[in-house]
Amino acid sequence: MKRIIFVMCILLTLTFFSCGSDNQDEKLYYAIDSNNLQATKEVIADASNLDFQNLNHAEFTAFRKNDSSALSFALDGCADEAVIMELLNSGKINAKSDDNFTYLEWAVCNGFSLEICDALIANGADVNDGEKPVSESYLTFVYPGLTEKKERMDFLIENGAAINKELFTAIMKNEYRYLYAAEVLNFLEENNVEVEASEVLRAAILGDEQALINAIQSGDEKLSKETLFFAAGSCNKETLQQISAAGYDFNIKDDNGWTPLHVAAYGNDADAIEYLLRGGLDIYAGTGDTSDYSVLELAALGANQEGLYCLLKNGGKLDENAWSAACSEETGKSIEYLLKAGYKPTKNDYYSAFVGSSDNVLKIALEKGFPFNIICENGIPVNDVESEERMKILLEQGAEATEETLCHAVDLRAY
After folding, report:
1. Taking the alpha carbons of 258, 264, 270, 276 in that order, is the dihedral positive or negative?
2. Rg of the chain, C-alpha, whole Å
3. Element of type H or E holding 265
4. What's the half-sphere exposure (Cβ side, CA atoms, 13 Å) at 205?
5. Pair 341, 309: CB distance under 8 Å
6. What Cα–Cα distance (Å) separates residue 348 from each residue in 70, 93, 252, 319, 393?
7. Cα(345)–Cα(352) distance, integer angstroms
8. For 189-235, how does the pLDDT look when each residue is reduced to its tens digit (9 = 90+)?
9. pLDDT tens profile 238-285
């Protein structure tokens, strides 16, 4: 088997160079485009006259309409971070962008590893370049499925990102702001940064229930729709009752189809969730609207055991979407909660625990003996894993290798 893989690798490399252009720029372009690490290394080693900023192969990328730099091609179309890192370690890349949209912004906001982000900075990228600083773009677009969320923000600050009120403005533009605004606001206040938010909105975001009650009793400021959403996620049942008694209705939706129950499901307790349910909010409201996540999925994403079990007790039904959300939750706790609640994974669910899941979910799947030699409509896990390390782990655990596995291994260079 090792000899077969070795021969295949030689043939792939020979084919690449025999079919490719004699021009170094064309060779590098096709090496990047085909995720070919060995070819990338060989072109770089022999690239004495190669202009990495202009490979004479202009095309539309995320950075420019007519782009021709090696780094742009790699970040926009290469599926192998090892190839990108090879370019960044070559000493021939300038990662400082002269456009409003920067390489670092793309890497941070689109899930590239922090090692890639760090290498971009080492090659000239600046956290404060662009139309707006990378930290503001990140907070505007951060989403539940993005890994290392807190670590990414810490990374930017450690590398000189400005700490100012614009960070709060950025998170409040995010469609998932109800999940993350409290952490950002707390951080800014700890750093003595004043933000542009009314006292009532600030109280709702941070769960300052006494301030909210005082505002209701004084009648000096009306509670906005957004304030009600934040209150649903941060306040206890008694405070929610007082808000309702003052004439405010939690039966509302935002532009994404969310109701206050979505926000409560992510992180509030069972009493608050039950109160909203008794007030007429539907567990399945928003499902099928523009919302990316159902109420149950948000409970899974937030690893909110108390909230999840409360929703199940009140008629919620677990399905593969909730399981998929639990697989992307970083701690792996939600998988445990779903299993304890009696959820019976399907073949596709087992597949999700191995492919595209967080590292902790993978660990739990192996500990619990989830089957990985399954054939389901999605495929076979070992043939679809997204990294060399995962393939290696599954093979060492006894995953059956086929010709398709071999082809995927060559793609990932796991040989």
Report:
1. negative
2. 25
3. helix 260-267
4. 24
5. yes
6. 38, 42, 35, 11, 20
7. 10
8. 999 999 999 999 999 999 999 999 998 888 888 899 999 999 999 99
9. 999 999 999 999 999 998 889 999 999 999 999 999 999 999 999 998
